[in-house]
Design brief:
The protein contains twelve helices and nine strands. The protein is of the alpha/beta class. It binds phosphoric acid mono(formamide)ester and norvaline.
């Protein structure tokens, strides 16, 4: 039984095999209607609980569709409507759910909730985003980059804006997949030192560059995300916007990256804030491929978790 909790907690060989498996799964489905089952049904007879303590479009739909294509069934649960949201412990919830379902995917606030769920569950637990990381997203992003540009190892990825949960998983991926990472944002929103250190310890170059133009020079991939994450207080919105405005990804900034640089955003986006529509809908943007690849990457993650 394997949990998928974070990219730095998963062996490199396993991460690579998940990406390769995702490509195989995607290629095999080429042209099939979305509701058509895969020709292999590794989740037949299995039930997967999808728990959401925060809103979601992509994670919810891609996990749900992915499980069904692999022959399994899902149960989508809102944290607020569970006893979990009314004082039952995570540990007890994990032990109870393990008697009914074969796998748990959880999107939550505190990382501690995810870790407690994994500690007490007898079934695999998958991280569907916490305040600190979003590993499924970055697996889809690595898959997306490699489909368009070949191996990500040795490339330069530049992150603009808030050093948030998605940025943290990118730093984990930099270390594990071997690419260089430049962060460009205001000092109060730097990624946590622990995430930077992990990547550096694996021997990749991590730079903090306050000048966004210098930061994107030589970049193979330019990435940004919302300026206000779901766990950020709305009261911080104006201050964040003021701090982050210089880091907007627009056509002028993209022109300083490599001519064939890709643009990514995990979505949902606030068009005109962290990125302009010109960039998001432009020829370098692969944002909807990223969204599609959540499906394929997570199917490979679920198969790895279950050894199926
Ligand atoms: N990128 C992502 O996780 O989107 P959702 O919040 O819609 O799931
Ligand atoms: N950083 C964003 C990602 C959403 C998928 C958030 O946590 O709200």
């Amino acid at each position: 039984m394997r949990h998928f909790l974070d990219i730095h907690k998963t062996d490199r060989e396993d991460l690579r095999s998940i990406i390769d498996e995702a490509r195989r799964i995607k290629d095999k489905r080429n042209g099939l209607p979305k509701a058509a089952p895969d020709d292999e049904l590794p989740l037949q007879g299995r039930m997967v609980a999808l728990i959401f303590e925060k809103p979601s479009t992509r994670t919810r739909v891609s996990f749900d569709v992915g499980v069904r294509q692999m022959g399994g069934e899902t149960m989508v649960l809102s944290g607020a409507e569970m006893q979990l949201g009314h004082g039952e412990t995570i540990a007890d919830t994990a032990r109870v759910l393990s008697r009914y379902v074969d796998m748990i995917m959880i999107r939550t606030y505190e990382e501690a909730t995810l870790l407690e769920m994994a500690e007490y569950a007898d079934v695999p637990v998958i991280n569907g985003l916490t305040n600190r990381t979003h590993p499924c997203q970055i697996m889809a992003d690595v898959l997306t980059f490699e489909e368009h540009r070949g191996p990500i190892a040795g490339r330069k990825v530049t992150w603009l804006g808030d050093g948030n949960n998605v940025c943290a998983s990118f730093l984990h991926a930099a270390g594990q997949f071997g690419f260089d990472f430049t962060f460009s944002g205001p000092p109060p929103l730097d990624p946590e030192a622990e995430f930077i250190q992990f990547a550096r310890d694996q021997g990749v170059r991590v730079e903090i560059e306050r000048d966004p133009v210098k930061a994107v020079e030589g970049a193979d991939l330019v990435v940004t995300d919302t300026w206000v994450s779901m766990h950020d207080p709305q009261s911080a919105r104006e201050r964040r916007h003021n701090m982050l405005h210089p880091y907007q990804v627009n056509a002028e900034l993209m022109a300083h990256a490599k001519p064939d640089a890709l643009f990514m955003h995990c979505l949902p986006a606030h068009r005109g804030d962290e990125a302009t529509s010109e960039v998001m809908d432009g020829p370098q943007s692969v944002i909807f491929d990223e969204a599609e690849n959540r499906l394929h990457a997570q199917k490979a993650i679920m198969r790895w978790c279950l050894g199926a």
